[in-house]
Structures are given as structure tokens and as C-alpha cells.
Amino acid sequence: MIPTIFVTRRLPEGAMQVLADKFNVECNPHDRVLTREELLAGVKGKDGILPLLTDRIDDEVLDAAGPQLKIVANYAVGFNNIDLSACTRRKIPATNTPGVLTDTTADLAMTLLLAVARKVVPADAYARAGKYEGWAPLLFLGTDVHHKTLGLMGLGRIGFAMAKRAAGFDMNILYHDSVRADSELENKVGAKFVSKSDLLSQSDFVSLHVPLTPETHHLVSGPELGLMKSSAYIINTSRGEVLDEKALVKALQQGQIAGAGLDVFEFEPAIEKELISMDNVVILPHIASASTETRTKMGLLAAENLISVLVEGRRPPNCLN
Ligand code: DGY
Fold this sequence. Notes:
- By secondary structure, the protein is an alpha/beta fold.
- The chain contains 13 helices and twelve strands.
- It folds into two domains: 4-100 and 292-310, Rossmann fold; 102-283, Rossmann fold, CATH 3.40.50.720.
- α7 (157-168) links the parallel β6 and β7.
- α1 (13-22) runs parallel beside α13, α2 (36-43) packs across α3 (59-65) and α5 (102-117) packs across α7 (157-168).
- (2R)-2,3-dihydroxypropanoic acid (DGY) is lined by residues 53, 76-78, 101, 289.
């Protein structure tokens, strides 16, 4: 019998094709996040679920799916949307998509850093508005990126990829993590392990690269922002909840820090309204992994996880529990 899966949002075509070759695929027909009721109805009777970071997978969803459910294959490297212990209690493997989005995400983190430092977004808006009247010595003066200090909160896959990019800009690289990386890795990019407070007080740019866990919730809040230089910028491509958004607004309003580059938001898709009017903040709609190549690879990896369990009856390659 061909296994049946529920895909909570349409993926790039290459991935949908692989899924359709192996499974009876039921997919969210709408171009929007499913309501809770739609999600609960959609998973009913399925052998596998392929959810996104916008779908909370917990006891209620697993119960709604039924006892035949054999795998939850998340379409993301982050998996804070999945209650892993609820999966484990039912002996259901949960998987993610590590590795394939590392470089694409680091590219966007660097894009945000450069954009906010060099005022790319307001300068573009100014030129499009027909305001450009000729070269001027004081027009859109930003701050240099090269030879500045980058502080990485987290030197995992994406943090390290960001460090490689920063090394290409001759940046001085500091990092802090729960566990110190091995010296070979540090030496590859010249990254120096420092305390969290040294990282915050010495960096010109602080970039967040940690997963969302109870320990990293509000890892950066008022006191941490207070340690940063008034000329420093914060970049977040990890999860919105890692950075206390209300505290960020306050720090920006009070000039405690110079600006921010944000791809993720604490209560996304909602964004603190004060941020919207600040032209020292670059705001993106959670697109760090959004290239056609990477989003296809994420789908193929999720498919591989589903196939390993539902077709081959073996442990999935990216099992989280
Ligand atoms: C992830 O994979 O966790 C990103 O946030 C979306 O690609």
C-alpha cells in the first residue's frame, strides 16, 4: 500500500514531484498558513506529516493524526514548532533539514549586515523617489564593515558559515556559544571565544545564530542590548524569540544601539510597529533560506526522511529524537 502524507504548504516543484512519486500526497490547497482546524483535519489518518515552522505539532495534532502516524518531517532546520517529547512518547521520529540551507542563510545574514551598515534600503528608496540630485559628500554615510568586529552568538553550522563570509571582509571575529568549538574550527576563520558580555561590549555587529530553546529565549534582552556599543548593530536570522523585540525597540529609540537587521520576529508574522518606521532597521519576511535551489533541497531532504521511514522502514537520516 502506498503511504499517505500530508504536506502543510506547497513546496517547490522538484520536491513535490519526488513526494508524488513515492506517496499519496495531500497538500494544503491554499496559499496561506493552515488554520489550526484545517491542520487537525488534514493530518487525520496520514502516515507522515511534512509541516513548516508555522505549524505547531503537539499532542493535539499527533492525536488527530492517529496511531498509524510514523513520521513528522519538518521543512526547516529549526524545530521549535515541534513538541519532540510528544513525538518521542509515541515513538514517532521527528526530522529536520540541516546542512542544505547553511550557506543561503549565512548569505542573507551578511546581506542584512551590509544593508544596515551601508543604509542600502533607505538609499534605494531615496533614489527611486527621484530625490537624487547628484553625488554629495554627506549623502547616506554609513559605517564600514571591513576590519570591524563581528560577534557571533553561536558557532554552529550557520554561525561558522557567517564567520567565513566575515573573514572575507577582513573582520575581527568573536564568538560565544554554550560549548567552545574545537581549535581547528576556530583557526579556520580566526574566531576567538569570548564571554557573552565581552562579545556584546566589544562587537560592532552582533549576529544571532542559535536555535530557539528555553535557554536561548530572550538570549538578548534589555541588559544585553545595554552592554552593546551605541554604534553597534544587531542582526537576527535565527528565531525572533531569541531577541526580546520590545527591549530592542527601546534600545533603538534610546540610541543604545545604532540599528538592526531582522529576518525573524518574536511574534511573527506580527512585527513591533515602532520598528516599521525606523530607517536604521532592515526588515525582511523570514527569507534567509529563500532561494529556489535551497528551498528545493530542503524539500528533497524532507522527502528523504519520509522515504526512509515510510518506504524503507529505517531510521531517518535527520532524526531529532
Ligand atoms: C529554518 O529552516 O529553520 C528556517 O528558519 C527557514 O528555512
